[in-house]
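input
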Amino acid sequence: MTVQKPLNKPLLQRAWLGRGPLARALWPLALVFGALAALRRGLYRSGLLRTAAPLPVPVIVVGNVLAGGAGKTPLVIALVQHLQQRGWRPGVVSRGYGRQGSDHRLLTSASTPQDVGDEPLLIAHATQAPTAVGPRRPEAARRLLAAHPEVDVIVCDDGLQHYALARDIEVVAFDERGTGNGWLLPAGPLREHWPRRGDEIVLHTGSRPAPALAGEGFRAQRALAGYAIGAEGARQPLADWRGASVIALAGIAKPEAFFEMLRAQGLRLAHTQALPDHADFRAWKRPPGADPNLPLLCTEKDAVKLWPQERKALAVPLLFTPEPGFFAAIDQRLAAVLRGRLSSIFQHRAYPTDTTDGQQTP
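output
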């Protein structure tokens, strides 16, 4: 069995779990980072940096305060699918991390990961929701609404710190790292101080809640589906390969977690390839010496980039299931947002006045 590992990056991540020598050495830089972050927030609060005008539909921002992946993409997919089931017509906006170019564009059936990014493409494929990408989320959202006037709620993939986007609801994802050592970058994993405003909806996406966040927010269960999907949409049960050898690859934040899930399904991983998150697969090749007839299993995120040159690759979906209370909280917040908007409309409605008798004419 061969194992190909990604570039060695865990050193800093391990340092973020405690307050050891490396973290302490970086702590002065964390003070600078925190000061700059506070200055930026202050500029938005003062109006020197402007938040765009609120959009005509509710906006839900899904993000995290941790550096690195914390399960945002499957959370966005689950949230969009829930909204669709409730009768909403959601649209998605995203920066489109890792793509080429910095324009604002709508996803189409011809979009590629290089054009729009791998995660937006995966979200669009999984939900069929209208999706737009761009560095300025308000502009991406306006383009989306102009092209799809039926959209009645926007879900923003990432963008918690993108203060230019006015938002109604914030959802913050945490994995088992919790807040790490509690320090800001680069001495710790935090992009901003935690706790924040206090009205966010918190969801634990990891296998267990971090001790620092125990009792806060909601839980989610993650598990592999019992099948793999081919490039043409055909499904094959994982049970068909139980005890057999396969090749597995993952270009995600935590590749080993995917491999362990496959092993738990009874598959024998003859070769594994752990690639950097958002890896570009255009020059990808099978592991040297690997049997070309072995099935190649990957994540859905990898598949959208791998299928153009490796049509035999099979994507194993990740089933992401938040506890019911999470969706109930989303529904309650959305209902409150709508009530607030209706109340504002009635309060600011202008009535013409008949000056002859001082009576208002409705």
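quick obs: The chain has two domains: 32-95+131-222+321-338, 226-316.
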